[in-house]
Amino acid sequence: MAGADDNKVMTAKEAISRFVNDGDELIIGNYTVGTCCELVFEICRQGKKGFTLYSQSGILDVDVLVNAGLVERLVSTYVLRSGGKKGGGAVERALQAGTLEMEDYTNFNYNARLVAGMHGFSFMQVFEGIMATDLFKIRGFMGQDKYRVIECPYTGKQIVTVPAANPDVCIIHVQRADSFGNAQYWGSMGSVAAAALCSKKIIVSCEEIVEHDVIQSSPHLTIIPAFRVNAVVESPWGAHPTEVLGYYNMDRFFYGMFTMANVSADGAKAWMEEWIYGCENHEAYLERYVNKFGMEMLDKIRAKPFYSAPANYGSAFTSSWDEQGRERSMGITREEMENLMKERGMLYE
Hints:
This protein is α/β, with parallel strands linked by helices. The protein is 32% helix and 17% strand.
C-alpha cells in the first residue's frame, strides 16, 4: 500500500506503465462527467490489453478502449450504442463480432458491488424485483455469480445478492489533489468515490496539484485519502472533451467529432490515429487541438467563477496540550501524568 506522506507525482506515461498490467480488472472511476481521458488515451498508447473493464457510464472512454482492442469483458450499466444494433459504436461492433463479452447491471446493483468492495464485504443484498427482469435471467461470463439468491439468516426469506467488486486498478480524474494523493472532487458524485475505494490500486489525474494546506482547509471535498493512492498526475484539461465542474464545460464540437467518427470502424480508427496514437502525450494532444481549432475554442468553455460559501473549521485550540506542554484541564505535564498513572497502577508498559 502507498504511503500517506510519499510524493506520488508522476507523468501519465509513468503511472500507467507502473500500475496498469495486461489482463487487469480496470475500473473507470468517473461517472458521466469529468472522464479521465488522458489516462484512457495513455493506456491506448501503451497497448495494455486483455482488460475486464468496469464502467458505470460507457460512452467515449469505453468506446475508445474497445476500439483499441484492449477490452475482453465489460461490466456496465449503460453504453452509448447510437442507432441500436444497426448503428455505430465500438461496443456494438465488438459484441456483434464476438470479441467482447458484457454483463449488464442496473445502476443500483452496479453501485452495490462497488460499495461492498469498498467496505470489505464479500457481497451486498439488492432488491428482489430484479428477478423479474432479463438483467437477472440473462447471464454472460459471470454465470451464476452475477446474482445469487440466498436465505436470510434472520428471517429465512430468499434475498438477492451481488458479489463485491475489487478491481485491480482504478483510473480517475478529479479537480485537485496534493502531491501525496489526497484527492478532492466536487459535483455529480455517482459511484466516483466507491469506484476508487473498492480498488486495489488508484491512479489519480487532476486539473491541478495544490499545497497540502489547501486540502486541510477543505476536508469535506477529499474523497480519496493519500494512503490509498499510488500515483498523482497533474493534467490541466485532462478530462477533455468531457467537462470538469469549476474548470470547463463539455467541448460539444469536439465530442461530436468523435461521435460521428465512431459510427464506423474506419472512422474510429482514423480519429484515434490522429488524436491518440498521433500524439505523444496529453500536451501534444492539446497542442494539436489549438493548432487546428484555435485557443479561442477552449477559452469559450472555460468555467466562470461561482464559489461556494466558506466553511468555518476553526476551534479554540487544536491540542489538549497547551503551549507550555501542560494538559489543559489538569494543568500537568505529560511526565507528571505518566507518574500519576503509574502510582495508580493505570500505566502498562
